[in-house]
Amino acid sequence: MSELSAPDIDARAQRKNRLFELVSVLGVWALVMLLFASGCVISPKFLTARNLMSAAQAVSLLGIVCMGLAFVTYSRHYVDLSIPGIMALSGAMAISALPYGFAASLAVGMATGLAIGLVNGLVVGYLRLNPIIWTLAMVSVLAGLIRWAYGGLQVYPDEATAAGRAFLNLYHVKLVSLADGRIELPLIVGLLAVLAAAAHVVMRWTSYGAQLKLTGSAYEVARLTGVNVRRVVATAFVVSAATSALAGILLTSFNKVAAFYIGRGYDFEAITAVVLGGMALAGGRGSIAGVIGGVVAVALLNNVLSLVKVDDFVIGEFAKRVIQGCVFIVVVGLHSWALRRTGMDDA
Amino acid sequence: MSELGLALSMEQISKRFPGTLAVDGVDFSVYAGEVHALIGENGAGKSTLMKILAGSFNDYSGTIRINDRPVDLHTPAAAKAYGIQMIHQELSLAPPLSLAENLLAGRLPRKWGFVLDRKAMHAESRRWLERVGLDLDGDTIVEDISQHEAQLVEIAKALANHPCILVMDEPTSALSRQEVQRLFEIIRRLRRQGLAIVYISHHLDEVLEIADRVTVLRDGRKVATHEIRDVSASQLVELMVGRSVSALYAERSTRPAEVRLEVRRASRYGFFHDVSFKLRGGEILGVGGLSGSGRSELARSLCGIDPLEEGAVLLDGRDITPADYRQSIAAGMVYLSEDRKSQGLALRMSVAENVLSSVIPRQSRTGFYSARSGRSLVRALVGSLEIHPADPARMASTLSGGNQQKALLAKWLATKPEVLILDEPTRGVDVAAKVVIHQAIAALADAGKCVLLISSDLPELVGLSDRVMILRQGKRIGQIDRERCSEAAVLLAANGEGEFVQS
Ligand SMILES: Nc1ncnc2c1ncn2[C@@H]1O[C@H](COP(=O)(O)OP(=O)(O)OP(=O)(O)O)[C@@H](O)[C@H]1O
Ligand SMILES: [Mg+2]
To answer: Which residues on adjacent β-strands are paired with residue B77?
Structure first.
């Protein structure tokens, strides 16, 4: 059937698989380069330390969310739409717990997220409700909950206390500061790096990662291979909620206020970044390295758009939404097309 | 047959996959009113050649003529428009839909131009189901029917589209003898109506019975085309394999050993009732019975995939009655599913990942897991089962059907099971590969493990089993030991008759 010898076939098939992964990862980083270059051309403000620093922090916040969401997408459960609700409620709860100290505040914020994640996990993983419908309902419940609990009020941390100041400073903490503060490594960037490394290791080198991949690739097969599919899926939602809670606390610290609208838009940006980074909605494919690329691309796109001015009018906010929507559609379309072309999709 | 002229002629057809020339300059033609069998080893290119005809690829080379007109078959729609229907090797019904929706997909009957005409839908689907001898309701959901029923529905679906050229890729792999005979009657009727039929099968007796001509493929090339009356089964085997295959079922020396597996009064009401049996170490126990006799259901319940409502399973005297499949795997009892596509292999993952998937839970004592550590195990299994191509990094979906089946066996052998339950282990596997799989099963038994073998392939069931237990309508009605076991005896007993049935 082949004029090639067996080792040849070996090598070629392997190369093809690798190539496919490489192209999707390289592709997104090429896009990052392109955005970077256009940023430099469009506005002189782009290549300033100040702008790049704020871009890096925005990248990190989105990135932290994506590190968790990636698990949900990888498990073929598409997306966790309750991300904005988790971010808002965790932030609000963290502020509410500030009177008991800074550590308590962080713990309560994270616990809130984990609790919501556990509910999501139980309902989607164990009761097998549709993840999109359920998390959509969840986000609306959460938004209602915050409004009910805090009224129309916005909740501020008390700057008079040490805990309050620590909380407000959280977003701005620098791990390293060199050359009189001209080169700095914000805590939040460091957090992303740690989370990314952890996510990568879990997906590639742990038994959980292997089970997640099998579940995402073929749920029924995984079940009949003895994988505890329910727990695997539930865990993915808990991880997603945990990173969302962390991002929510950080964002609340940055905004200096908790409100129900905090975190709005992160659901869509995050899923765009994840898919742009080569993690297919079809499940079981892609890598954390790719997702990081997707995150940087989305954050840069936002940053560049916010610098574009037409007649003194910042078109950013409007264009941002439209362009993000288009990017998402194009990427998802390209993805399915490429998979079908290379015969990688059995559907 | 030839007076009706050529319905289909394929000339110098080639199709290349990355790294493989799957079909290499093949000439193939079918007359109207002819059944043309296509045979060859696993991976010979049979399915690929026929998928070209069904419009699955837009990059084949060569010329295809239908009724002497050259045509381009680059899309499935184009192929359908020329009246080509294909029954795929891997079943392709949409599970959440009803039979009627599957059967009449794309042309559901309507009232007033837009409303679904449920009554007409019901009546029409019923008619087609009856054609293939199925007494099922059109509203039945695909998920609720069994493999052999699904295969018949698949055939009904093709017929419902009124084809001129009908391709059947291993249509009988899940069918019982009676169903095969019924299918043959349908085929003969279609042949009289002037259809051109391509019949792919690994069962040479079927080919010799139903076909008018036969074409043999090997390594993507055509070896020969013969009138069926000019060839014998052994000649066909030689043409396929390039050598003669001997000693299909080697004698195994069964040493008496301790009882290892004991099943006590197992019931799942509505499926099987009060089934008890014992299995010695090193023994292969065949399970015979008609389709629908509860064989698969029994197997699935024994290892916890489906509930076991009553009864107990003991291994080496220890109660291992599983609450779910995970427990059963942990206890060393595994089940090779009859449905490799949706329950057996993750087709988008590599062969190595699939093989190792069954041992992830075991390797995970530390929580860390690396596919690398299993590499030598995979190599050994790919080698000993002669999976072709022997490349563990290959995506499972790019293997031919028979090689996928071997990969599935490798996946369960990797767990080093104490009890291996096999449900149709050689479905879609060629003659030579069958020998390899049988040797692997025998080797497992010789190592003192227990094997429970469910197979509709009677020669296999009789040749491989040390004992055959007969199920009928969910009840164990008798057993036949090796000395007196024959295909006829099994068949008779499965129908509830003969000396081996205990009242
Ligand atoms: N999508 C694909 N990508 C790469 N190689 C493929 C693909 N599909 C099939 N092949 C290869 O083409 C060859 C022919 O496969 P094909 O499925 O036609 O075999 P077959 O004769 O139908 O075998 P079987 O009896 O096992 O069903 C095999 O070597 C197979 O590995
Ligand atoms: Mg085939």
So the answer is: none
Q: Looking at ligand 1, which residue's alpha carbon is closest to its atom 25?
A: B42
Question: Which atom of ligand 1 is the closest one to the Cα of B220?
Answer: 14
Per the CB < 8 Å rule, is A220 touching B393? Answer: no
Tell me if B342 and A217 make a contact (CB, 8 A cut-off).
no
Residue B335: closest CA among B291, B360, B305:
B305
For residue range A112-135, list pLDDT tens digits in order: 999 999 999 999 999 999 999 999
Token digits of residue A39? 């940023």
* Site to substitute for ligand 1 among B14, B15, B17, most atoms within 8 A of C-beta: B17
- The contacts found for B363-372 with CB under 8 angstroms, 24 or more apart, are B363/A207, B364/A206, B364/A207, B364/A208, B367/A206, B367/A207, B367/A208, B368/A205, B368/A206, B368/A207, B369/A205, B369/A206, B369/A207, B369/A209, B369/A210, B370/A205, B371/A210
pTM more than 0.95: no
User: Quick one: fold of A10-341?
Assistant: ABC transporter involved in vitamin B12 uptake, BtuC (1.10.3470)
pLDDT digits (tens, 9 = 90+) for A192-224: 999 999 999 999 989 999 999 999 999 999 999
Going from N- to C-terminal start, the domains of chain A cover 10-341
Q: Are B328 and B320 in contact (CB under 8 A)?
A: yes
Of the ligands numbered here, which is closest to the C-alpha atom of A342? 1
CB-based pocket (< 6 A), ligand 1: A 1, 343; B 17, 20, 22, 40, 42-48, 89, 398-403, 428, 430
Per DSSP (E only), the strands in A259-314 are 309-310, 313-314
Atom of ligand 1 nearest to the CA of B43: 19
SS3 A196: helix
CB contact under 8 A, A209 and B347: no
